Amino acid sequence: MPEAIVIGLGKSGIAAARLLKQEGWEVELCDRNTSPNLLEQQQQLAQEQITVKLGHTPDFESLNLANTSPKLIVVSPGVPWDIPILLKARELGIETIGEMELAWRHLQNIPWVAITGTNGKTTTTALTAAIFQAAGFNAPACGNIGYAACEVALKGTGNTSTSSVHRREQGTESKIQNSVDWIIGELSSYQIESSVTLAPKIGIWTTFTPDHLARHKTLENYYNIKAKLLNNSQLQIFNGDDVYLNKASLNQWSDAYWTSVKGAEFLIGEKGFYIENGWVIEKLSATSEPQKIVEVSALRMVGEHNQQNLLMSVGAARLAGIEIAAICRAVSEFPGVPHRLEHICTWSGIEFINDSKATNYDAAEVGLASVKSPVILIAGGEAKDGDDTAWLKKIQDKAAAVLLIGSAANAFAQRLQEVGYNNFEIVETMDKAIPRSAELAKKYQASVVLLSPACASFDQYPNFEVRGEHFRELCLNWVDKMQG
């Protein structure tokens, strides 16, 4: 019987298994699914003496009866924390942790910036990492973005064999060196939930709106999971313009740094980061003088939400002692994040924009708010729980037409009709949506074709990245065809 079992054969699970193997654990990696890709990974990991069981779920009850229970279970982020086998494992006293917690135990001597939130965390993480790197720090982004956290731990503990081989397979060369200065981590609620001792130097909470309720059941549970990360952080930065976080405000977070794009008078408390006269301003204490840091116009990304992300990233950098010059350089050179309001191409004056990362109503509303109107909107996929009211209002304000794809198409069509919006078509697939969107953009003289689904992707794609890449490929092929 293995000493350690890793559940979930994704990037995080493989990195966790390799890290445990390096430490001398006898490791078994299991996944309830099977596919040609998973079989290929199984064969490769077997060469590293890591057993992989596909189409398999551990039975801890029978193992316990035979006194052969593992000492440790590590769970990948995509595996729900409260499934019966994990509840049983904890009941039996088997230590059960997430992949992020395992990485933290190896990297806790390094300061972390941990970023969480319903929306905005990927852009904030990427921009924060860019600023820290511009300042000369070795500060890899990891977690939900970049490397799995255990990959950083593998490299940081000197394993150059398995981790570098794995990264070559991924088509990227490692930028992690053995001497990591800061960890910049994007953490989902799933990763926080399964992290017991994770305690960052700086914690950032970007936004809070209903999401992942199928997993967390109630908004209160979801909030408390996020709050745990901030409570464990030495320093906290909050988006003060977020309605829900603003309500929590000083009652719970009296010593935090708050941000606002609306100016000093909207700053909660006496310290934080805000925008005034086109500048990011810092005020580090009640008695300190406000100081200009960087012009907002230096950031190439559009939208008020990206100004909020800028404030939080600059806040983290300043709390880490980074000089203003490095911040200005990084901000002006930052290209943005793939799949989040990403410009793909322009055809006949019509911009095609990929916002595949907008997987809920709030993110999709922000996407619509950030582009020129009129818009031809492509929406749909696997629907999520949440309040669609503001999103539907934004469609009425800005969309000349809506093309609906995926399993949510019929339900979205019904909701649009209910609010009196009838200029929609159910096209079902992205392949049909792109040529039709170009036709409609010409017809209505629309400025933008926007993929902003307001849905998860799992009905038609493995993840939102693959969905966004398909959109990109179809758009570029369409333009080539029209110009050729």
Give an account of the 3D structure:
GO terms for molecular function: UDP-N-acetylmuramoylalanine-D-glutamate ligase activity. InterPro entries: Mur-like_cat_sf, Mur_ligase_C_dom_sf, Mur_ligase_cen, MurD, MurD2. Residues 115-317 form the Mur ligase central domain. This is UDP-N-acetylmuramoyl-L-alanine--L-glutamate ligase. Pathway: Cell wall biogenesis; peptidoglycan biosynthesis. The chain is an alpha/beta fold. The chain has 19 helices and 20 strands. It has helices at 11-22, 36-46, 60-65, 84-91, 99-107, 121-134, 149-156, 162-170, 189-193, 213-216, 219-231, 243-252, 304-319, 324-333, 361-369, 389-398, 409-418, 430-444, 464-483, and strands at 4-7, 27-31, 51-54, 72-75, 95-98, 112-116, 141-143, 183-186, 202-205, 235-239, 257-260, 272-276, 279-283, 291-295, 342-347, 350-354, 375-380, 399-405, 424-428, 448-451. The strands form 3 sheets. A 9-stranded mixed β-sheet has the order 7-8-6-9-10-11-12-13-14, sandwiched between helices. A hairpin with a 2-residue loop joins β12 and β13. α5 (99-107) runs parallel beside α7, α15 (361-369) packs parallel to α16 and α18 (430-444) packs across α19 (464-483). It is globular, with a radius of gyration of 23 Å. It starts with a strand and ends with a helix. 50% of the residues are buried. Residues 157-175 have low confidence and may be disordered.
